[in-house]
Amino acid sequence: MLNYLEILDRANNGPYTTEENWDLEKVAMTTRRLVKKYKLEWNPKELVTDDAALSEAIWNAGYEMAVELGSYSRSTERIIQLSQDEIDSGIRNMPQEVIMGEGKDARTLYARHLDDERAPLFFGGSPGTPIPEKLFLANVLSYMQEPLIDLATCGTLVEVDGREVRTGNPIEIVSTRRELQYMRQGLKRVGRAGMGMLAAQSSVSELGDLAAAHPDYLRSCDSHLVPMLNELKMDHRNISRAVNSLEYGMVNASLPCVIVGGLGGGPAGSAVVNVASYLVANITCLADYHILHPIHVRHIATSTRDVLWVINATAQAFARHAPSIIVADIYPKSGAGTKELLYETAANAIVNAVSGSHLEGCGSADGNAPNCSGLEARLMAEVALASHRMKMSRKEANDFVLQLLPKYEHVFSLENGNLGKPFNEVYDMQMIEPLDFWQKMYDEVKTELKEMGLKL
Amino acid sequence: MSKNVYLQAIAIAVIDGEAEDAVNATNAALAANVDPLEILNRGLMDAADEVGKRFERSEYFLPELMLTGRALKGAMEVVKPVLLEKYADNESQVKGKVVSATIQTDIHDIGKNIVSSMLTAAGFEVTDMGVDVPIKSIIDKAEEIEARIICLSALLTTSMPFIKDLIQLLEARGIRHKYVVLVGGASVTETWAKHIGADGTAKNAADAVKVAREKIGV
């Protein structure tokens, strides 16, 4: 493997190009060319494909893009070139197993293969969602207490002690440490102190990340995010996060949020960019595992037809050609207290279960409001496990998803989205239990899913 | 060739995002004495509107918007001096100068890029300052180019307070009245925009163009 100092050197001394040139001439034009070369097309009625040739073509196109482009440092306006040997070495060295957490609560994240006999694992929490401090602990408890949840994640604290949190401000250090204090407190309260986490979500710049790398906060058996910027870019902030893990040893979760409808164009190009991003992130993000989180250019959510296709295509390309640990974020459009959230969650869970990913969620209400709860994470895990137990084929998965789409697709045309209600209006804040109306919605949707043939 | 053929050639070049063709077609139209105002409105702007509509219908994506922006920029450089010469009040033909930026500490640029491209396509003269731009630099740039609109973007909730700071700094400098401040980003709501004293917000890029037009009366 490359010495990471070599990456820093390349970020400082690589070939110069403007960011606009990188975006347009490199990323956009290369994607167009590769989509044409490999004749890549998406089918809005076949969101879960079982087309090995298509998967191979997407893999080859992504691989070609990674070798051809490498990465770009926005901080220095330099291209971080990566050779084919280095990309290949990144693939060979991609961890196949990572132990998260400790003691009886430890879990082994593993690289899922297609039709893997082993069940996927579940991260519970609403990753990155802004959460007021008064709701934070109760909110994370609602996920941590769920028996099917294996690993914990959380939202972002937007205030501490009544003070607004500002990125890059010293208060970011306070908020990130406070977040970790609540997380550790929560895990102890539910009797799962050793549970592994993907946390320090309140660290938007590198400040919080640096401040949380301590056994009292983020342990070396926990993971943190090393994001990439759209598309295939890094900057000093995010490189600092990778560097921060070097000796301390945190688990690095790469986060390239490819925008579907962005520089990669439509779904086919976006899948190519996503594959290339992971191959680059193996090296630039020092990725131990990858977060799968394509974003719709207008709707954000991961439950639109085109984003579901990209999720399936990307995860499947790796599962078939270079199994790696992939954890898919579920970001539904709808918020807690709505049936649509549960349908969106079910659709995402099915697609991910049969495509080779582990699951994380849910970033309900687009992860944009504290309208999220542990109940939808319970459904996420139940549906994914049912799909796994049933040995659901990709064809069957596609049929299920096509049945679910009409139940929620109208939310994408609602002017104000489908926000639902904040956590404290869907859960009893003392008992940390869903309120009756929310529980009833969940029960009704579960019955519908069973009637559709899902063995819940 | 008829006037419409020249205008159509310009429109096709803009819609296809072919900068060189757009410049050549604009030069050809001017050489054939097509009115520069018609080139602007019927050749360039109508085509740009069409590109915006295609983006909204998911027929076009960000690269197409950016390429159209390049084509428009090239063609505008050709047509603008002729407009200046022919129409004394040429400045009124440019809908307004805009400074756009993602606010300091926030590094997300796609939403801001789309809005900048759509505003350019709608005839605004946009100076895009990029991401993570200090509030003082944004104000200084707006003063320097005599902008009418300051467009600010923030995706991160924890970067949004800096937008409020910018508005307060405009007030402290006594220049708040000179600018229409529009704010946007995934976490920005109309209520928040009003609360911090912004002049408007929009749910998407097409809406942003509409709001910008309304706010400066064009």
Q: How does this structure look, described?
A:
- The complex is a heterodimer of chains A (456) and B (218).
- Chain A is of the alpha/beta class and 456 residues long.
- Chain A is 46% helix and 14% strand.
- Chain A has a single domain (97-451), classed as TIM Barrel (Alpha-Beta Barrel).
- The longest helix of chain A is centred in the middle third of the chain and has 20 residues, at 170-189.
- The termini of chain A are far apart.
- Chain B has 218 residues and is α/β, with parallel strands linked by helices.
- Chain B folds into two domains: 3-90, Methionine synthase domain (Methyltransferase, Methionine Synthase (B12-binding Domains), Chain A, domain 1, Orthogonal Bundle), CATH 1.10.1240; 94-216, Cobalamin-binding domain (Rossmann fold), CATH 3.40.50.
- Chain B is built from nine helices and five strands, in the order ααααβαβαβαβαβα.
- In chain B, helix 8 links the parallel strand 4 and strand 5.
- In chain B, helix 3 (36-56) runs antiparallel to helix 4 (62-86) and helix 4 (62-86) packs parallel to helix 5 (110-121).
- The radius of gyration of chain B is 18 Å and the shape is elongated.
- The A-B interface holds A 19-20, 23-24, 28-29, 31-32, 74, 130, 156, 158, 164-168, 172, 175, 202, 204-205, 229-230, 235, 237, 259, 261-266, 297-298, 300, 306, 366, 368, 415 and B 58, 61-63, 66-67, 70, 104-110, 114, 130-131, 156-159, 161-162, 186-187, 203-204.
